[in-house]
Amino acid sequence: MTTPEISIDNCYVNREISWLQFNARVLQEAEDESVPLIERLRFLGIFSNNLDEFFKVRYATVKRIVEAGKGGKSELGGIKAKELLEIITQIVIKQQSESVKILNNIDKKLKEENIYIIDETQIDEAQSEFIKQYFLKTVSPALVTIILNDSVVLPNLKDTAAYLAVRMLMSGDTKQFALIEIPKSVDRFVELPKQGDKNYIIMVDDVLRYCLGDIFNIFEYKAISAHMIKITRDAELDFESDLSKSFIEKISDSVKHRKIGEAVRFVFDKTIHKETLRYFMSKMGIDDTDSVIPGGRYHNKRDYMGFPSLGRTDLLYDKIEPLPVKDLSMQDSIFNAISKKDYLLHAPYQTFSYIVKFLREAALDPKVKTIKITIYRLAEISHVASSLINAAVNGKAVTVSIELRARFDEQANIDYAQQMKEEGINLIFGVTGLKVHSKMCVIEREEGKKLKRYGFISTGNFNESTAKIYTDYTLFTANKKILKDVNQIFSFFETNYRVYKYKHLLVSPHFTKSSVFRLIDNEIKNVKEGREGLIRLKMNSISSYPMIDKLYEASRAGVKIQMIVRGICCLIPGLKGMSDNIEVISVVDKFLEHSRIYMFGHNDDTKLYISSADWMTRNIENRVEVSCPIYDEDIKKEIIDTFNISWNDNVKARVLNDSQENQYLVNDKPKVRSQFATYDYYLNKLEN
Length: 688
What we know:
Number of helices: 18
Number of strands: 29
Shape: globular
Largest sheet: 10 strands, mixed
Mean pLDDT: 89
Distance between the termini: 43 Å
Oligomer: single chain
Helix content: 25-40%
């Protein structure tokens, strides 16, 4: 896949450009012919969905800098904001063009598998009758069609919804324009009756094109055409200062306001009539600071994430059965087990059910008195939330710190927060000026005349849905020193004018940066004293310049640094005299790499932390994040083993360097596909 030229200023890659290169790695998965065919379509959907969110958030932020009349050069890694908007648009145009080529290639491969995606020009007589009936019964009742003229004000187009811009050529060569919203309540992919061994699918967009005559039968037009357009809006939440409103009400109102946020991107079918394009851009007030992107016939390719499987399991990844954690029984008491030793859960290789089991046991156990937990993103149907509600009903004192500003999941969290409030759960809505992104739980259980603490700390959300595809570690522990620190963080939530000190956890925003710097300084000291210095890191993103500068300092001192970074990487490895000792790879594969690990030192001397925090400014300075030390030697070895498996990946690992070309890591070693090898690692642990 071709890669556009990347601008690098001094020793940093611009954050937005680096993110676009991460999304290019996702697009590589759609292009990779070793990936099962329907999974390739789904990666195309992920690429598109990622891009939508990028424009809602990052592009919108840069655009705000431009509109405020600021250059933004210092905040944006040496690139002026207006120049960056142009670079982003050019990169995205190239990536979108590449995605169309990939889709065409996949379409050919699907035909070889007797799967045909047809359009409105390829419908035969039998299919015609089915489609007309489907339109009348399913599509037509859900349709919103707007007839436009000079006196009609174009309504606010919904963020990332897809529309058909309709142009009718009337008698006397006058034009009539209309807009059809493609209904989200209808499946995007319509499965037509099978013909022999052949499967046929038509997009609902083309069902609408086929039925334009039925939709506009009251108009006497000579010609009619329909082309897709899509708009993306700024997703920033703007809060009112109305003191009479609760925090939930303010967030809820702000989420509703997002629907009419300022436009930041306009995508259109490049075959659209120029007159139609001009008309709609004028009506929508699209200006030169918006990203205007010509695209293919179909937008909202994120819908490909839901492409029907058609019963073709041979065109999908094999489903894996999540494994049990060795010696941790789902039938016995988890409290009894973790009172004796710590246990580690590594999802999705091992089952998330242990977390639900822990909370359900706490909800029912008469000895459990309190439960405290942080919530960032809940599943749509959350057994975690129902367990907490169950506990409150059973008389436990339940405290939930729920983050209502978890981007794009605000409404789901609001709904659950209201349910919890009704059941008497004590809700904490974060900390003023800070998002609570830490993932932790502590319960107090009466044992004899004392209260004993049990809990878990995780790198990922307590979300049953994402736990099937996100790789995350969760530590179950009864370590009283660690859980005392966890309990103090909940005290900070209640009295956040006080800064607490923590003896074991690294906690943002007060201590993560300084603590990590001390750990890095210790490795620098080791090198200066003739010993080997080693830092191994795994995270989603690194964009904090102070953290990058500290790693550069360690590299110059001779410390070896190995990094696995899935997404944004503003650090440039391999720069002479700057980062010669830093190597960075990125693994993009079946699962989404989400766990964060920090390791300092060698073997028995390794100080190891699992964390909720990436090394971004927001995580270090503007969020409550927790990094938890691993003291159990068996668990420490397990995490080091799985890190090494990822580090040795030479199938799905890309090398990140100053070329920014996403080249696959190629060597003569035996092939290691780390996600599959990690599953085998845990399977072998059980068998042995």
